[in-house]
Amino acid sequence: MRVISGDKRGISLEAVPGQKTRPTTDRVKESIFNIITPYIDGGKVLDLFAGSGALGIETLSRGAEFAVFIDVSFNSIKCIKKNLAQTEYQKSAEVYKADWKTAIDKLAKREMKFDYVFLDPPYVEFQEKIPQIVTALEEKNLLCTNAIIVCEHENKYNMPLISAELFKQQHYKYGNTGITVLYRLGGN
To answer: How many CB atoms lie within 10 A of CB 169?
Structure first.
């Protein structure tokens, strides 16, 4: 696993030890960033269910200003911190051990807003909850006007339309992986 492009291109990243996480493959990561890179212009990243932090770190490497990494696993938090040190992005990031609901509430209290959000939860436990998580991000006012949300799930999962008034939604399939990209349509 490595940083694919940008300032830290080629730097190796550690994967979370064990079999509980499913790192985004370089092929899928490259496809995601081929889709969203034209929209990256500074801004803040929320990497929810961050695992190794590879998606948030890739976004920093490509020009995002700041990233918040959230994961409930202690091993993931250790791995994210190692990868941030490896890429020298410690000062451009915050890392928190928390479940998604607690994290969203705490970020809302701080009145944080994000331009890019990555949702890559464990498929079996959480992929059906992605619409609920996106709704919570919207309701808690954590999304910038033209935020982009990238959701990773099984390719067999057909993510329901969140809200045609709030989001433009596009689906992609790469082997066993499905990607749904939500483009926020203005607003507050």
So the answer is: 18
- The confidence band for 20, taking pLDDT boundaries of 50, 70 and 90, is low
The CA distance from 126 to 187, in Å, is 27
What residues does each domain of the chain span?
26-157+164-184
Instruction: Summarize pLDDT for 65-83 with one digit per residue, the tens.
Output: 999 999 999 999 999 999 9
φ/ψ region of 7 (left if φ > 0, alpha if ψ in -120 to 50, else beta) reads: alpha
Q: 23 is written with which tokens? A: 């790192």
Q: Is the pLDDT of residue 163 over 80?
A: no
pLDDT of residue 19: 54
Residue with tokens 């889709």: 35
Q: What topology does CATH give the domain 26-157+164-184? A: Rossmann fold (3.40.50)
Q: How far apart are CA 10 and CA 1, in angstroms?
A: 9
